Amino acid sequence: GGSGTAYQEVMLVSSYPTGMALAQRQVAVQEGPLYRTEGSHITLWCKVSGYQGPAEQNFQWSIYLPSAPEREVQIVSTVDPSFPYAIYTQRVRSRGIYVERVQGDAVLLHITELQERDAGEYECHTPNTDERYFGSYSAKMNLVVIPDSLRVTAIPQTLNKVEHDSLELKCEVSKSTAQHSHVSIAWYRQRGSEVPVEVISLSRDFVLRAGSAYAQRQATGDVRLDKVGETTSKLTIYNLHPSDQGEFYCEAAEWIQDPDKSWYAMTRKRSQGAIVNVQATDKEFSVRLETEKRTYIVGEPVEFRCILEAQNVPDRYFSISWAFNSSLIASLGPNAVPVLNNEFAQREALGQLKVAKESDSVFVLKIYRLRLEDSGKYNCRVTEREKTVTGDFIDKESKRPKNIPITVLPLKTSISLEIINNASSVLEGESLRFGCSVRSAFGPQSRFSVAWQLVDKLNRRSEIVRLDREGTLQPGPSYAERSSYGGIQVEQVRPGSFTLEIFNSIKADEGHYECRVVEWTRTLDGEWQMVGERHMGTLVSITALEAGFAVTAISRTPGVTYNESFDLQCIIKPHYPSWVPVSVTWRFQPAGSTEFHDLVTFTRDGGVQWGDRYVGFRTRTAIEKAESSNNVRLSISRASDTEAGKYQCVAELWRKNYNSSWTRLADRTSNLLEIRVLRP
């Protein structure tokens, strides 16, 4: 049938007469007689040469039937739609018969379903386009239509085999053609809608050849094709593989030699199929994970390949899952549709990540632009599943290879830091102020996030505050309340320059302060990408307020004459600044008494409170506190027996907290001063 077309076009080249004068028209037609089988699709070629006029010549085909060899019956024309006789009109209209133009001066006559009545002498005629008639304008050939006697039969059956079994199938091929013809036979294996795979064939000239998928096994003798008797051929496959599963059928063609000595397949037929199931005996499988390298730079792609090694993979059911640091990324069932989790689903939707089945045995995870946080361990897990009679799947066995760890390094950044500390040693209660300046080669397209951290003497790290790239401030857990009262302040003075201020410092604020800066740039897809990180630190020591806290009472006149004045001084050490809250109380024990009573108190906020025991003192006593808070003087005028006794001062050291509450840090009691009042 159709395979003859290409073959006949070759004949166009080799069969045309040569050596004729250019001006002499010559029409050539395919050499006859041709034997063709009833019901087949045939073609006849015709070619004109040596003509004058247009390059595109017209052709008209006619037939002279054996019953009236002198009478022309017109079939089809390339120029005249009314050319066909009534007997052919319907077949021409329905394209059961048509002319295919191969080139301007060559055509093929197609008869798609050859009938017995199509036998006869065919004439190809070319209407004249020359200035004068010179040469031949038509050519004839004979077509003989013979019955299609080829029969190809095999027993339709279903065979259930086990791996390493043998398979034997027979095919009966017969013909009863009177003319001399040859037969070719071939065996094929087909699975569903897949392209059939040739197993082995015997050509019309008796050459045995295996298809590419079976060539090696034929060479070792595991695949054979033998002739049994006159009409039967037997296919034998030893040592069956699971991949041999499918439908096996045989196909035969009957060939005849045309007058030009070429062979033509007159008819081709296939047998019914035998379904062969092959159950694998080895259900073991192994899995390996591969990637190109272990270290990457931010923005580079990475591809992980999970490779399944097993027999008969297309006929088994496997599902696969991908994991990152033991957390599920994605899974693919036997249908190979990926289901992704959480953040990875978002990245897949943005085209940044792909999970796919490359083939029956290869599964791929690809990240197109790596981030720093993609550093970690990757793995795949393959699970074999079994399909139940209800169509559901149940898990049988799972395997996974060793983890593959990868490291994602930041882009090389020129970020540099400078940190400024207002004082490396401060007194408790003083403010701490730090400056952190960053410079980068990326310039204005960069943004920075800053985190201030404190590492104490026990090497415990705590985050004080974080300022993200959008300018949002987030205090650390240990500093949240203090920050809410305004005790901690972070400010971006200008792009790349940040300050941290901690008001009313406490001893626990002592340690190593670090400024950690992360640089971000925007990628082509609009995402922010971390490109570098730097940190720098400075040490701060804080002197506790109560360190060295002591109080001393002094008097220059322990013996006082009646009616004279005298001074008592309460000296506080160390020398505190005026903002340090200290309260001082003078206490008095009259001569002959065993009890002390509060005489007067200079409070922490600068007020004066008098005791209610010795009212007379108040009219003749003055209390004065030096601006430095280190000296509280008690002056008494007109001394009398009432003022004789023992004096003592008590000092209390206070701290005002960030929430306006007060904490008493320490209290100290001075030595005793004994004042004697002498009669004049």
Automatic annotation (TrEMBL):
Coiled coil: none annotated. Residues 17-142, 147-252, 299-390, 410-525, 563-666 form the Ig-like domain. Pfam families: V-set (PF07686). GO terms for cellular component: membrane. Its main location: membrane. InterPro entries: Ig-like_dom (IPR007110), Ig-like_dom_sf (IPR036179), Ig-like_fold (IPR013783), Ig_sub (IPR003599), Ig_sub2 (IPR003598), Ig_V-set (IPR013106), IgSF_V-set/TM_domain (IPR051102). It is a single-pass type I membrane protein. The keyword Cell wall biogenesis/degradation does not apply. Keywords: Disulfide bond, Immunoglobulin domain, Membrane, Repeat, Signal, Transmembrane, Transmembrane helix. SMART domains: IG (SM00409), IGc2 (SM00408), IGv (SM00406). PANTHER family: IMMUNOGLOBULIN SUPERFAMILY MEMBER 3, V-SET AND TRANSMEMBRANE DOMAIN-CONTAINING PROTEIN. This is Immunoglobulin superfamily member 3. It comes from Ramphastos sulfuratus. The gene is Igsf3.
